[in-house]
Write a structure and sequence with these properties.
The protein has 153 residues and is an alpha/beta fold. Helix content is 50%, strand content 22%. It is globular, with a radius of gyration of 15 Å.
């Protein structure tokens, strides 16, 4: 299944895509797709995301849920949940939410290790965070599948 991950933010929306493995193997690493600069119209922003999703042949969405380290919800989690509801109203595709705690830090670290300049990091951070969200989601899915297979054995 082809997923598109969304890192929803107040100024920018990061997008990444990737496929779930056919078997219980490790997922293929997702790739950054785009960063959508937020407009004044949520409908416009979702339309742009759906246009890119169609281009990527997306079959399902994963939207990052920015929980606090203790798992509690704050204003950002509420905004992401409301955004997910708006996306669900505009597409028949499945929409799931996944805890994105630490994904921006992961993305920043990867780019620092790759010696990406500060300006380019700022430009790419949101789509890299979306790729990190999707990596975590796909790993979680693969682990659940493995556990289910082992329980049957």
């Amino acid at each position: 299944m082809r997923y598109m991950a969304i890192d929803y933010g107040s100024k920018r929306i990061g997008l990444a895509a990737g496929d779930a493995p056919e078997n219980s193997g490790d997922p293929i690493l997702p790739y950054p797709v785009a960063t959508v600069t937020r407009s004044r119209s949520l409908g416009h922003d979702i339309g742009e995301i759906l246009r890119l999703a169609e281009k990527e042949k997306t079959q399902a969405f994963v939207i990052g849920l920015p929980l606090h380290a203790d798992g509690s919800h704050g204003a950002s989690a509420q905004a992401a949940t409301e955004f997910a509801s708006a996306v669900k109203k505009r597409t028949p595709l499945p929409v799931e939410m996944f805890n994105e705690w630490g994904t921006t830090l992961d993305a920043e670290e990867i780019m620092l290790d790759a010696d990406v300049s500060r300006a380019k990091r700022r430009e790419r951070i949101d789509r890299m965070a979306a790729a990190s969200i999707l990596t975590g989601f796909l790993r979680h899915q693969a682990n659940q599948k493995r556990e289910a297979e082992n329980a049957v054995s």
